[in-house]
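Page 47, continued from p. 46.
Same chain as before, 120 aa.
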Amino acid sequence: GKLILDYPVQLVVTLASLEGKRVEVIVRRETRTRSNQQNRYLWGIVYAIISDNTGYDPEQVHDAMKVKFASKHLENDLTITERTSKMDTVRMTQYIDDIKRWASEFLNCYIPDAGEVELG
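Result:
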């Protein structure tokens, strides 16, 4: 295990300013929010194909898919949906894969993988 720091000098300066004080250190895996390419693929390909196959506009498809694949049911009988703009790249990949599987099974439509299409 080797710790790789993006800004080692800034860390040293910050630590020096905290000398003699109690501090809390949190280390966690870096996550990156979904990429622009993932978002273009989701809206330009995935939602567009589902929209063409259902007659719903892409915004309606987006709302429906979030309810189906990005919902959390709370104890007080409320349901909240995750914002796709806040998903990390791993979560966004899972979300898109879930939608593609559903579209294949329930709409009998094929949605090509991102590598199979040109994303302008």
